[in-house]
Batch of 2 targets.
Target 1
Amino acid sequence: MATTTLTPAATNSRSALYEWLTTTDHKKIGILYIVNSFVFFFIGGVFALGVRTELAQPGLQFFNDQTYNELFSMHGTIMIFLFVIPMLAGFGNYVVPLQIGAPDMAFPRINALSLWMLPLAGILLLLGFVTGGTAAAGWTSYAPLSENRPLSAVGHGQDLWILALVLIGTSSILGAINFLVTIFKMRAPGMTLFRMPILVWTVLVTAVLVLMATPVITSVLIMLFIDRNYGGSFFDPIARGGDAILYQNIFWFYSHPAVYVMVLPAMGMISEILPVFSRKPLFGYKAFIFATAAIGALGFSVWAHHMFTTGAVYLPFFSIMTFLIAVPTGVKMFNWVFTLWRGQLMLKTPLLFALGFLSMFLIGGIDGAMSASVPVDFALHDTYWVVSHLHYVLFGGSVFGIMAGLYYWFPKMTGKMMNETVGKAQFVLMFIGFNLTFFPMHELGLAGMPRRIADYSSTAGWNDLNLLATIGGFTIAASMTLLLWNLAISLRSGAPAGDDPWEGNTLEWATSSPPPPYNFDHLPEIRSERPLFDLRHGRTAEH
Amino acid sequence: MSSSPRSRSARPAIFALAIVALIVGVSLLLLAVGVNVLHIGDTFVAGLFPPVAVTQQGAKIRDLYTIVFLIAVAIFVVVEALIIWSVVRYRRKPGDDTLPPQTHGNNIAEFVWTIVPTLIVIFMFFVSWDTLNAVDTSAADAQTTKITAQAGQFQWQFDYIGPDGKTVVYTEFLPLVSQGGGMMVPAGRTVQLSLVSHDVIHAFYVPQFLFKRDVIPGRTNQFDFTVDAADAGQTFRGQCAELCGSGHSIMLFEVKALAPADFDKWLADKAAAATASPAPAPSGSPGSSSAPAPSGNPGASSAPAPSQGATGPTLQVTASGIQYVEKTLTAPANTPFQIVFDNQDPGTPHNVSIHKDSPTGEEVFKGEVFPGVAKKTYDVPALAAGTYGYVCTVHPTMTGTLTVQ
């Protein structure tokens, strides 16, 4: 494909397309990760709108049950595996080498491989639509519903789902190794571990989680593939004597830590933005690092809280561990709030999204502690309350964090500022739309509406709240068109950003915008976690 | 935390007052145009709590929810107030370029906000554990009613266990009260419910019990519940809460509470009727020939088949894989005829019910529901010429077209 775009005149300098397709520059790869993730964000968003449209009123108006199941299964799979995880990996790719003063990632070609596996996986996943239906057993694809058996997952869609997830998992593992080697081996002189920016720390812990957990889900996917295609008997108890609970244990051993993979780097981004826009250091830098490590460690001991109602787990252990993981999360929350406290807050768009993160993730986190109470979870599990909780964590947390990061680092990536007015309008619309969509789901779940149902009775008392949530969903969609509009006008005619438009603290603001391929002409002295602040104001006391 | 005094400004107070004024103003405006704001507020607050529990166990869970929820609200209010206060109070004034105090942290503060939340969650764990031990125990004795709920794609059936604790004395194949079925339970008496699945994972969920438990193939789950005696006569909605395939949203059931004496009489009647006409009879079991009788199950006294003489043809219908093999049938007008219904799905109940015009039209005949593998013969009364739909009462997705001419 690339050769066809070459013209004789291009022999000296390759075409821009060829350059982007073959690049091993971490910055270009990071931007490609981000663009690819946004493409899937919009595809997954369209599926979400399909779900909300069907649920706006009782009765099946637009889809049948099977298509509806495909929609929410693809929505969940795409948002988790092709949007949030790769999006954060993209920001990590772009920012981490810059923040530690490195010229690139440790393995640039492996980095390109990790990237290009993702669109391939996405295409495989969506291929289900033309081969008789995608996977329809939810993003969790619990066995035996995901087994190849009548009334379950008979088509190729489920196999394509497995292949896609194995590819994405492999990409994640390669990326995690790359991050770990980069962070441990390529830091600039003076950049000790406890002078690393918090984003680098959160990417470090995330990489450890990915490296330990992803092979486990790969194993369960391969077992399911064997069950489906070669007569294996891992998970189908009726036909072949397998164990349905085994699937859930292995699946969640990965997929709960995956929640932290999806939220820790967003926390890291917030922890870069809040200090800059408060003009203060992060409150409790070391406490924050220890809290991140604690979340990573505890994250491996809470997986069965997704299985409280199976009657097949030791409830008190998973309950207390789930309660305890709220403690380091709470420590972070207080550190963020006291970073704002007595600061000089510049209410620019990145800070607005960061504040949105604080407020919304607060609700998501408190919800998590509530459902750690086993009897309460008996009532709430698998209802819309859980849908609300997970979106307050992954949308209210991760997506607000991603938006904050986008507005914060866009000037560095492009050399141009994003439009503040459109940005603020997007924030307001997204904040309202988000709460309109997901807060009523708390009440729907308490009123007894289960997840993943295509239809509900008009007499169940769920009509108004569902309509409200659908209106909210379209409000979010409107806010995303504002984002696209802002990206378009800013790329074309955004104000020049200069090297350091926000008075940043970390090394990426010490080079040009966008940075040269080798990143730095020279590095400032690194004596603290805020080398650029030190350059501007001189060092302040540690305490 | 080092501190440098800052001049207090009155602006935050004005800002807060403005917001309060805005809310009050909008509320008054809505009241003026006839929207009952107070009612909406009430509904909103009530919606933050689960429904009032109808079981003793559910009431304990609701009490626990209230404790946990109030703690959650308190934490939210404190932290959110800190965030909003910081934003309002410490936002940058135009032209103010002074660098704020560079506070790096405070170990005492870190210690406090590690220890206090730890104590709070440990308290929440212990109250939860206490409730768990009270609601998730089995205290089955001779008085306990034992029921087994069997789940399959996409229906529920309920087996009532006899006094010996083992034998199934009656099986209800229809999950809804409106179909003449439903799960009957004695109010005030403990029910021990066993959960069995034939295929994939389902979940038994009754919102008003504030409880659900997964129904997992290959293992039998169990839980006890006691419907309050005061709730006798009430019907509670339930449905599958674990995605189970393309019929997940229609996998509904209802639980009806009866006074214990009524329940005993109901079960004795049903058990006697079941004994009188053993379930998978080879053939000839009456499909309650005419009018939609109290429905669902044939009377014990096999009413003599009507006008056997004028019997028309015998039609063959087979059910396999939750589908009718024969999707179209033809029958003569104004002549009673027979359907030999062959249910090939092991353990799955089916029937043939005939409806005017389409499968959702007015019901003109309903055959007995029975589980496979078994075969029964339905006597269908004379039908006027026209198009009819036939459907399985248990599986609304199983349909076919009957042409009477």
Note: Chain B has five helices and 20 strands.
Target 2
Amino acid sequence: MIQLNEQQLFSIEKILEEQGLNDGPLKEELLDHLCCQVEQAMDGGMLFHQALQQSLDTFQEDEMKELQQHFSNNSNQKRSIMMKVSLFALSVLLLVAINFNRNEILDQEPVEGPELVAPIISHVLLADPPTISPLRGDVKITSGFGMRLHPVHKVKKQHKGIDFKAAMGTPVYATSGGIVKKVGNMPKGYGKHIIIEHDDHFKTLYAQLSQMDVKVGDEVKRGDQIGAVGSSGLSTAPHLHYEVIKDGVRVDPEEYLRP
Amino acid sequence: MYICPMKTNELLRGTLKTIILNLLAEHGRMYGYEMVQKVREQSAGAFELTEGALYPALHKLVADGLLVTEKEMIGKRVRKYYRLTPVGSEARIDKVHEFQKFVRAMQLLLNPKPAT
């Protein structure tokens, strides 16, 4: 039975750190869990980096999101309190504004009211699935969604997105408007990658990038350039790996390439 | 034939606590990864627990007083073992009975006998 050495342990710890999973109540267990998985794969004859990649594939992409939610529950509660406080403040402001307008209405056109209300409503109504391709011009999908033979590991695995063949540096565009949720780098997986949240249901992920032009919290519109094609993760040639995540589940992106 | 393992879906999630309690009743103390392995093995590969479902469930069971934990060093890393409390042992019996009742009722619902 193989046991990981200190250096290998350290590199796994670092990956958890990259994922933002290096503190909180699950930290030690997740580390042990990943280590066990890697050790088992190495017992089966794999090299460390192959074993690690295989473990990460099932680990990070499956329910990492859920784990992160579990971690951030406390801060979410705080955020929700903050939200309630600010909503309250906003409604007070609105009431004041409306009353103010009522008083003024005899003399003036009511201008302030509708403008104050508009942004809130449009935010609530913002429900935007992706409707364009992340690359322009003639695009070639080299690997579809679903079960496939993994190009590096040579085993049957679920492909969670689609791959577009494209030259290094080809611009990558946001497929719908939204907020940039993650700008990350995982050299042994997605490489440089961006996640955009479009609404309560849809997120898109762009991976293997050579360049990333946005940062977390940026607002993007459909068709904005967010980065460029590369081969920065576990990849054999420049390509764009693109995922569409609907309600936390990966769906076939080919269904969302056009309106 | 290739059987696609059932990842922690809604059905499995609803029974996760029963599965954990039962595993611990059978095997004494266990750590998370060991549970994933055992579930895979005992279900002939049909069930695949994911970390995202397993660990929050384990922590909830500890918070509810059904499990206790103990830590051990494995080389340079910490391993956390879980074990049933007396309350947990009782809860396990109830949960297993409840589930068996559920399965029988579902079978009646899904395979109604032709009227005679």
Note: The longest helix of chain B spans residues 86-110.
